[in-house]
Design a protein that fits this description.
Blueprint: E1 6-7, E2 13-14, H1 26-36, H2 44-47, H3 73-76, E3 80-85, H4 90-104, E4 109-113, E5 118-119, H5 121-126, E6 134-138, H6 142-154, E7 160-166, H7 173-186, E8 189-195, E9 209-217, E10 223-233, E11 241-247
Parallel strand pairs: 2-6, 3-8, 3-9, 4-6, 4-7, 7-8
Antiparallel strand pairs: 1-5, 9-10, 10-11
Length: 253
């Protein structure tokens, strides 16, 4: 399988920002219900805890699986995840590994890019990605990418939504909350690719899994080991690793 490099994004589908208006927040939903009389007890301070998007402290959200961990769509389904790395291109390689895994299981995939350049299609095809079945959306920044993902998730049509945020790694917490609930509702893996160091802050506390990826060249110079280490995992706990070996495309330095 090939590693990936960024390329021109001129062929990507663009969505107009006005069509990506966010839905009401969790608190707004509860407040609206209280004002209309559609509440459980008539007490907003109590009724807010009955909202499905909220949990009490100490309540287990994600039971620990019994099978061994793997970097796969099934592992990340129903979760908001973040994968970070430097600027060596390993993010695209590991991200496309998820795309091929989802497509092999018959799951539709959407790729939302907030970077000025997106993946290089020939490299993606060399990795086994079915480009004809991949929905690609090009936006200007991280918050707009999140709102695009919100629209895609509400359709219930996708098993994996990847947000290539690059250095535009900022997304409002209410928007992240909506993505979490939609991921749970439709059993969709939502994965944000961010360019940052391991000690940099994550997107937020709602991120269920955060991993850091690195790429190492083999001695023969033609193969690369892509290694992922989990810095945070609400299901299993941090520290588990995953790696795969890929062949670099011609001309990769």
């Amino acid at each position: 399988m090939a590693t990936l490099a960024h390329g021109p994004a001129s062929s990507s589908l663009r969505l107009a920002s006005p069509s990506l208006s966010p839905a009401p927040s969790v608190v707004a939903d509860v407040a609206e219900a209280a004002m209309s009389g559609n509440v459980f007890n008539g007490n907003l301070a109590l009724d807010i805890f009955h909202h499905p998007a909220l949990r009490r402290l100490g309540e287990s959200l994600e039971p620990t699986p019994t099978e061994a961990p793997a970097w796969s769509r099934a592992e990340l389904a129903g979760r908001l995840c973040e994968l970070s790395a430097g600027v060596d291109g390993v993010l695209l390689s590991v991200g496309m590994g998820l795309v091929t895994d989802a497509q092999k299981d018959g799951e539709p995939v959407a790729w939302v890019s907030a970077s000025h350049a997106t993946f290089f299609p020939p490299d993606a095809a060399a990795c086994g990605v079915d480009l004809a079945a991949l929905v690609v959306v090009q936006v200007n920044d991280g918050p707009t990418a999140g709102r695009a993902a919100d629209v895609l998730l509400r359709s219930g049509a996708f098993g994996l939504v990847v947000l290539d945020l690059g250095t535009s790694a900022a997304m409002p917490t209410p928007l992240q909350g909506r993505l979490v609930q939609l991921a749970l509702k439709h059993d969709t893996a939502v994965v944000c690719l961010t360019t940052k160091k391991p000690d940099d802050a994550s997107l937020g506390s709602l991120v269920s899994l955060r991993g850091q990826a690195v790429r190492r060249r083999s001695r023969d110079g033609r193969r690369f080991t892509c290694r992922l280490t989990t810095l945070k995992d609400k299901r299993r706990g941090p520290g588990w690793t995953w790696q795969e070996v890929r062949h670099g495309p011609d001309g990769l330095a």
